Amino acid sequence: MRKEEVQDISKINKLPIVAVLITGAFLAILNQTLLATAIPHIMADLNLTENTAQWLTTIFMLVNGIMIPVTAFLIETFTTRRLFLAAMGLFAVGTLICIAAPNFAVLMVGRIIQAAGAGIMLPLMMTVFLFIFPIERRGAAMGMVGLVIGFAPAMGPVVSGWLVEQYHWKSLFYLVFPLAVIDIIIAYFVMKNITERTFPKVDYLSIILSTVGFGGLLFGFSSAGNYGWTDNVVIVSILVGAVSLIFFIRRQFQLKQPILEFRVFENRLFTITTVITMIAFIGLIGAETILPIYMQRMAGYTAFESGLVIMPGALIMGFMSPINGRIFDKFGARWLVIIGLVLLTLTSLLYTNLTVDTSLTYLTVVFTLRMLGISMIMMPATTAGLNQLSKKMIPHGSAMTNTMRQVAASIGTAILVTVMTNSALNTGEDALPSEVIHGVNVAFYVTTALSLAALILAFRMKETRPEKVKRKMQTAGQNQ
Predict the structure, then answer these.
(1) Where do transmembrane segments lie in this chain (predicted)?
(2) CA-to-CA distance for 133 and 136, rounded, in angstroms?
(3) CB 423: neighbour CB atoms within 10 A?
(4) Residue-wise pLDDT tens digits, 265-310
(5) Which residue of 9, 186, 393, 424 sits 20 to 30 Å from the alpha carbon of 368, by its own alpha carbon?
(6) What DSSP state is assigned to residue 197?
């Protein structure tokens, strides 16, 4: 059999395919937050301002967010094997450029290339998992995806914090590069062609509109957190992004083979679960952004201590995601998601009474419970929604889910940082810690309200036990 042919899923060994996909996606998502605590060292080494250096993180998320929407098109155009090797190859080349970078400009080029590969990885992994696992085993498989989504970004600051204290900041890329190369080598031998190619027509206008639309929104909202909502660049970016996105969506409904299929939202459960996962991701990224700011700038904790607060939660999410996946396979997503959202709402509320004297133990226990709740929401809700789609629509559903999650993270973080800043009782040089912390508490009140809205929405989820979904799809003849 030629390597270009789609292979019989029942005859392939799934374990090595799962292993290389999870490794690739883990490295890709890890790099979103890997430079978080290394920024001060890079600023000193390359003589940069904080705003300039922050672009190393912003550009990665921006390019990542631009690539995700076109992944459905790429999956339908290229074989699984070629697309994975190309994505990981781009990621490895970008990492190598970062290692060799003599200045900021070259380092930025490396981060852009890294992100171009990384943006393909997560939707590709989710799509392949949904193809190779039967519907009654998808929960456990997607639980592994949940491990990657929650564990990798939380571990980024912890790993980088330790490494940059011991070694040069380039050690971060020295760590990632050999792992990426090893993953590529193993994938060359074990990766199979899983997805079916439909060779959609390349619509260059759609790709341009998608890039400008999602890119403009992500850039605008990301910048709003740093520069404020009245900044001209922020306003123009959001307006251009929104207008481009409107034209992009209208064009997709006119095309026979759209780049990104918005008809997935015609499915009610998919829409509900997508909204819930967006809010949960705001809760995840928002807390991981605000807590370190509060701890280091307002409560007098060190960067290492703020990393310690996050780590147990990351570990519990990594441990529980596969377990929650198995629970999903047996009982469905509805009550998992409801219980998870109750935990997310309560822990958000518990973070609304922070003071300069709040203990490390309190912060850690509440964050760990928070991550336990998020592990019960993210992948069970995502899998329940994607299970409603036909095989033909799964690549589009996967790309849409990841796109919405990325947009939610960008918009949510910008809004929460703005609320935190504007709600502070005093931000001047004479401001007392308690006056600044008031803004943090208000930001968590907003998070509590969002989580409560998602909880109310979760009660509208229908029964999602996989065997019932499978019977329903067989009855409807959805064997596309």
Answers:
(1) 12-35, 55-76, 83-106, 112-133, 140-159, 171-190, 202-221, 233-249, 269-295, 301-323, 335-354, 360-386, 407-425, 437-459
(2) 8
(3) 16
(4) 999 999 999 999 999 988 887 887 788 778 877 888 876 777 778 8
(5) 424
(6) P
* C-beta atoms surrounding 145 within 10 Å: 25
Residues ≥6 apart with Cβ < 8 Å to 232: none
The pTM assigned to this predicted structure is 0.81
Note the pLDDT tens digit of each residue in 361-371.
Answer: 999 999 999 99
Architecture of the domain delimited by 1-199: Up-down Bundle (1.20)
Spans in the chain with pLDDT lower than 70: 1-10, 36-37, 50-51, 150, 154, 225-226, 303, 427-428, 463-480
Residue 291 CA, chain-centre distance (Å), reads 19
Listed residue (350, 307, 273) closest to 156, CA to CA: 307
User: Cα dist. 452→411, 436, 444 in Å?
Assistant: 18, 25, 12
How many Å from the N-terminal Cα to the C-terminal Cα in the chain? Answer: 24
Q: Which CATH superfamily is domain 262-465 in?
A: MFS general substrate transporter like domains (1.20.1250.20)
Write the CB contacts of 166 (distance below 8 Å, at least 6 apart in sequence).
none
DSSP string, 139-194: HHHHHHHHHHHHHHHHHHHHHHHHHHHHS-TTHHHHHHHHHHHHHHHHHHHH----
